[in-house]
Amino acid sequence: MNIVTELFVVTFKIIWSFVLAGGKWFIRPREKSVEGQVCVITGAGSGLGRFFALEFARRRAILVLWDINRQANEETAEIVREIYREMNPSAGSSDSVQELPLFQLKVYTYFCDVSKRESVYSTAEKVRKEVGNIDLLINNAGVVSGRHLLECPDELIERTMMVNCHAHFWTTKAFLPKMLERNHGHIVTVASSLGLFSTAGVEDYCASKFGAIGFHESLSHELKAADKDGIKMTLVCPFLVDTGMFKGCKIRKEMAPLFPPLKPEYCVKQAMRAILTDQAMICTPRIMYMVSFMKTILPFDAIVCMYRFIGADKCMYPFLAQRKESTNNNESKTGI
């Protein structure tokens, strides 16, 4: 094709993509079914991971829950089983007919330290043998050290990078090959607004989330280049979520009503809508799109002025102070 002709075609496709994106504001896309599909969720024992498990359970998915906390993971699994029982109250009756009977709606729990690739690979192998091929991978596990850079032990920095970023490499390498064979699957990266723009005092966390987003975007391009359109990718970038992970974080009190911490239930429901409609990216709340865009066009000094105005420049300092006061070192390794 002549390059001039191709340029016109590309221009048309770009304009058409804007039209389709705008149309979704007026016509809500139809959600796909995940009934009977196998869904792996990392960090499922608490926070967003638990709420993702509950949402997928309500849609009759078969759940594979990973967490480093066995007890919390089992608690999530028990809530999921209760949801299954509520959806199939007549299960076990000989004259009842179910599309997917209760005994087929299963939840599996696995202990896995996603910061260790050997643990990820061995657990993934168990899943393949005991459950089968997976359809959805929700990379959700995350930690925060809660220390200023010069006060943070190297081990905690490494752990933050391993759990929040490197683990995405290991889980994807473990499950992507079968997805490629089948040209079917969905990979979800639960990142953060702090992977799109940063603030002071959480250098390791921001770096890990920037890395996770870079990994996600590069993999998305690789799948497109390989014409694997059956494998979908969704990037989830929420603002601070009220899970206790950043307890104490504060911005200027006059601006606080405009940027309240997100309820985890709301955050996950918004993410589920994006996942089930194959949306490439979801920022919650929507103003995060604007903040991210402004970062790309404003001079750095202007960004600093804006941060200082809304109190975002030192918003993490109260959180860091609370962490510093804690004498329990294990608290600094609590996952979402």
From TrEMBL:
The keyword Oxidoreductase applies. Pathway: Cofactor metabolism; retinol metabolism. GO terms for cellular component: endoplasmic reticulum membrane; lipid droplet. Its EC number is 1.1.1.300. It is an enzyme of class 1 (oxidoreductase). One of its GO terms (molecular function) is all-trans-retinol dehydrogenase (NADP+) activity. It is found in: Endoplasmic reticulum membrane; Microsome membrane. It comes from the Eukaryota. SUPFAM superfamilies: NAD(P)-binding Rossmann-fold domains. Keywords: Endoplasmic reticulum, Membrane, Microsome, NADP, Oxidoreductase, Signal-anchor, Transmembrane, Transmembrane helix. The keyword Transmembrane applies. InterPro entries: NAD(P)-bd_dom_sf, Sc_DH/Rdtase_CS, SDR_fam. Pfam families: adh_short. It is a single-pass membrane protein. It catalyses: all-trans-retinol + NADP(+) = all-trans-retinal + NADPH + H(+). Belongs to the short-chain dehydrogenases/reductases (SDR) family. This is NADP-retinol dehydrogenase. It comes from Phoxinus phoxinus.
